[in-house]
Amino acid sequence: MELGKLWIRTVTRDDLGFVLGLMGREGWGYTRKDLERLLGFRNAETFVAMLGEERVGVVTTTLYPLLSGGYLGWIGNMVVEPGHRCKGIGSWMVRRVVEMLREKGVVAVKLYAYEHRLGFYGRIGFDVGNSFLRFVGFGGKHFQSNVFPLSHSMVEKVAQLDREYFGADRKALLDFMVKEFPGSSFYGCSCGELCGFVIGRFSTGGCEVGPWICDPSSPDVGRELLRAVLSGFSSMRVEMTLPEGNSLALRIAREHGFVAVQRVFEMRYRFLGRCSNDLSGVFAVGSLEMG
Ligand SMILES: CC(C)(COP(=O)(O)OP(=O)(O)OC[C@H]1O[C@@H](n2cnc3c(N)ncnc32)[C@H](O)[C@@H]1OP(=O)(O)O)[C@@H](O)C(=O)NCCC(=O)NCCS
Asked: Considering only the top CATH level, what class is 3-129?
């Protein structure tokens, strides 16, 4: 195969069937609505890799402003057509999107990788960071207190808290998610002060909890936030990805019947800068594809 015939372009509506087909085969539970939602978020861009005139892969990048200047770039939804794997296309795509991110002012690049993909990304230049566990459970009715519906007007405050733990500015993403999921976004207070928030995303493919962020000195609020989301997803399958080092979040998840099913790792591109996060307040990540 001639790698010289590879090129990349922004996804169009005509590609949706191809992208859904690829993701469906990986069991990622993306629906057309999820994909359309992703395409509607201005800070993320999804690309289709082409081999001549044939579509062969898909990848999404997301930009988050950093307080120190420049952006954190996140890579996700990386898939190559099964019939075209192990020919160098995936490695080419990752290198190409890193190059494109750098052109846009990105000074740090991260992604989440399945355990069996660490070698693939490692060879391209990514170092292994913290580990995370993917949990599966079910929604159910719970009593909760000190948590309130999260509206657009609260997003600025919530984004400030989020920055302390995520390390970059996800305000645009949080604003977008709160508008999309107004009934399953909550914030929590301790002594009248904002100390956590959670967003639950409903899709026909299932429900996902995250981001779930909380000051670790207010564990009860962390628990109440999860309960608020689970109450809205009664008897539905719910998934979330928790830092393996956050014992408090793991305990709360297990208390509510969640079971760990898979391990993923945060990876950082070693030839660019760092974007440090504080996982003590990250109870669940935003999403595997967008950080
Ligand atoms: C991960 C994935 C994107 C890689 O795509 P790919 O096109 O197969 O990637 P490459 O061909 O560049 O590399 C794959 C392997 O083939 C090897 N390879 C590359 N060119 C080769 C060639 N010409 N001959 C033989 N082997 C080759 C690479 O060394 C690499 O080995 P490694 O995985 O042990 O590092 C693809 O396997 C995929 O879509 N998987 C399912 C979705 C997924 O898991 N995504 C990642 C989420 S973390």
From this structure: alpha beta
